[in-house]
Design goal:
binds oxa(dethia)-CoA, Peroxisomal Thiolase, Chain A, domain 1
């Protein structure tokens, strides 16, 4: 038996900021952002909090899995941007969704948060400590970036993604996580307002600061090695994998990994163009999009891979077991209509 995904969900706040709007705020332009990151627009939380978005994503995943929230006995919420220190985001979600039987805790592994949470849920389930887990990645990074710092505000964004996992015939085949605290200061947020009571200094320390090129090089070095180890542990090859679902940090990182591993870029789905970099939420948001758009079929092998602050990185290889949803004619024509509108917008 294995730990398998039986439902996915996501939530993106409705406010969208495109590159041209950002160019009015900092010295940047649409062309630079597209070329250096692949991002065109991103969703920004206005009144939505980390726990609110997590709850919305959780409701969607529960509905998708067709379970009663009372069946959930573990909630792990990955975030680096909780709106409060306590109660935890996972306890707030528990209350909102009525998962009265769940043990709840938050986890901070930055952009690797979702794969760390999935590995932890797998360990609980395999050890017999839980049967059905809700895992969530939720971030309001827009509240932590300095909107005058063009190296971070163009990249980070908000959103939440969730998955329900339980014991299944098909599921996780192998799992790897790693950390290197010695290099952690290349992506830091030294202080949060929770410390301002005694420490009144309000310099730039409560904003995310990042040495982007260092993180870029770290990702391109570690991700292929991590995936190689993952496949080796499962005695499988890269050709066996249907899709590589990487953290949506930067489209150029994904392209570099594809190039370095000599795996066609078509095997690396991306949604960074419209979502930006949502840290721990990026993998489950993308996975939910893939699930709901009928891209996945039972038996597909997926690699999920996260990397980022800490520094942390990690990956899972899993066999997909959910049935492919049927897209109704209405949905198809709606999608076709949207695609048509998008083409018209581009032509204009
Ligand atoms: O989510 C997990 C953790 N984070 C990541 O994985 C992010 C990894 N890093 C990156 O994605 C990229 O390093 C960034 C997108 C952050 C930056 O792209 P880059 O190609 O590495 O740019 P750079 O920092 O090397 O800067 C190149 C130039 C510099 O100008 P000079 O010194 O060559 O004249 C920057 O000042 O581009 C300039 N620049 C910009 N120009 C226009 C930096 N940011 C911007 C900007 N608009 N927004």
């Amino acid at each position: 038996m294995a730990t398998g995904i039986i439902g996915t969900g996501s939530f993106l706040p409705p406010t969208i900021i495109d590159n041209n709007e950002l160019a009015k705020m900092v010295k940047t332009d649409d062309e630079w952002i597209r070329e250096h990151t692949g991002i065109v627009e991103r969703h920004i939380a206005t009144d939505e909090t980390t726990s609110y978005m997590a709850t919305e994503a959780a409701f969607a995943a529960i509905e998708n899995a067709g379970i009663d929230p009372k069946e959930i006995d573990l909630i792990i919420l990955a975030t680096l941007s909780p709106e409060r220190a306590t109660p935890s985001m996972s306890c707030i979600v528990q209350d909102k969704i009525g998962a009265v039987n769940a043990t709840c805790f938050d986890l901070n592994a930055a952009c690797s948060g979702f794969v760390y949470a999935l590995q932890t849920a797998d360990a609980y389930i395999t050890a017999g400590l839980a049967k059905t887990a809700l895992i969530i990645g939720s971030e309001t990074l827009s509240k932590m970036v300095d909107w005058k710092d063009r190296s971070t505000c163009i990249l980070f964004a908000d959103g939440a993604g969730a998955a329900i996992v339980t014991e299944r015939e098909q599921g996780i085949l192998s799992s790897v996580t790693r950390s290197d605290g010695s290099k952690g200061m290349s992506l830091k947020c030294k202080e949060r307002s929770t410390r301002n009571f005694l420490n009144k200094k309000t310099e730039d320390k409560h904003y995310i600061q990042m040495i982007g090129p260092d993180i870029f090089k770290f990702a391109v070095r570690k991700v292929p090695a991590c995936i190689d180890l993952l496949l080796q542990r499962a005695n499988m090859s890269k050709e066996d994998v249907t899709y590589f679902v990487l953290h949506q940090a930067n489209a150029r990182i994904v392209a570099s990994v594809s190039n370095k591993m000599e795996i066609p870029i078509e095997k690396f789905p991306m949604n960074i163009e419209h979502c930006g970099n949502t840290s721990s939420a990026s993998i489950p948001i993308l996975l939910d999009e893939m699930n709901r758009s009928a891209m996945l079929k039972p038996g597909d092998k997926l690699v999920l891979c996260g990397f980022g602050g800490g520094l942390t990185w990690g990956a899972q290889l899993l066999e997909w077991s959910m049935p492919t949803p049927e897209i109704t004619d209405d949905e198809e024509s709606e999608e076709a209509h949207e695609a048509e509108n998008e083409m018209q917008d581009t032509e204009e």
